[in-house]
């Protein structure tokens, strides 16, 4: 009988290379384990984008540098551009009917407006409602150019655009609309923000209710763009949904 060592060698010789990598990595390949383990952090980001990792409160400490690099050194922009290419390919195939009821939905935070400066300053720490409200109330979130381009293209094609945000309407309504306007997001059909009735409800529940309201009004949601899966799941999500990358935070 062959020894255990010989058996392992024979096993390795017949195993395809990609499976050899899996065997040797074990768990460490799929979860961040050290400050310089970009591979683990890449896997973590993929899990986030695929909606496999849920309910996380903060970027894992070993991946803070990785996320900062991803967001600021070009890859985020490239990934966002790739998403926009997919949206454009879809938009090229559809047309708005003359009845004015073909609609698109856009999330606001980290879809139309960027909060990267805020989260970077917070070192991508856990969500801090008061600090975020202070940031948002300044009305100084930079617009995201690739999304603005899509926004304008859809307007030119005759779609009705709805901005749907979990931000509190009472306290952040005016600064949000001013911020959108100053960054070029104007001419939309309606800005829908969280009213007191929906305080404490998950984003998914609140946004589903708002979309249902639009569908009940007769609108056909042809597309839906957001950076969180909770923007894109639930009821009446639309004919197509497009997920913008965001490894900075998770909204249920
Ligand atoms: Mg968002």
From TrEMBL:
The keyword Protein transport does not apply. Residues 1-25 form the signal peptide. InterPro entries: Acid_phosphat_B-like, Acid_phosphatase_pln, APS1/VSP, HAD-like_sf, HAD_sf. Keywords: Glycoprotein, Signal. The keyword Plastid does not apply. One of its GO terms (molecular function) is acid phosphatase activity. SUPFAM superfamilies: HAD-like. Pfam families: Acid_phosphat_B. CDD domains: HAD_VSP. Belongs to the APS1/VSP family. This is Acid phosphatase 1. It comes from Lolium multiflorum.
């Amino acid at each position: 009988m062959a020894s255990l060592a010989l058996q392992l060698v024979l096993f390795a010789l017949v195993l395809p290379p990609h499976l050899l990598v899996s065997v040797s990595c074990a768990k460490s390949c799929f979860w961040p384990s050290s400050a310089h383990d970009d591979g683990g952090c890449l896997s973590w980001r993929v899990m986030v984008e695929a909606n496999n990792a849920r309910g996380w409160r903060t970027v894992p400490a070993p991946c803070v540098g990785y996320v900062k690099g991803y967001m600021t050194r070009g890859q985020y922009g490239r990934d966002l551009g790739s998403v926009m290419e997919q949206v454009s390919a879809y938009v090229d195939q559809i047309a708005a009917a003359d009845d004015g009821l073909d609609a698109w939905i856009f999330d606001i935070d980290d879809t139309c407006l960027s909060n990267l400066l805020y989260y970077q300053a917070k070192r991508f720490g856990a969500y801090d409602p008061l600090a975020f409200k202070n940031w948002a109330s300044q009305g100084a979130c930079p617009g995201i150019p690739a999304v603005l381009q899509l926004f304008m293209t859809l307007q030119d094609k005759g779609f009705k655009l709805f901005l749907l945000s979990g931000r509190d309407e009472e306290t952040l309504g005016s600064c949000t609309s001013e911020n959108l306007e100053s960054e070029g997001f104007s001419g939309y059909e309606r800005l829908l923000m969280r009213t007191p009735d929906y305080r404490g409800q998950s984003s998914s529940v609140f946004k589903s209710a708002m979309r249902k309201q639009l569908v009940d009004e007769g609108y056909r949601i042809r597309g839906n763009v957001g950076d969180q899966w909770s923007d894109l799941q639930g009821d009446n999500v639309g004919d197509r949904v497009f997920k913008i990358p965001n490894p900075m935070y998770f909204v249920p």
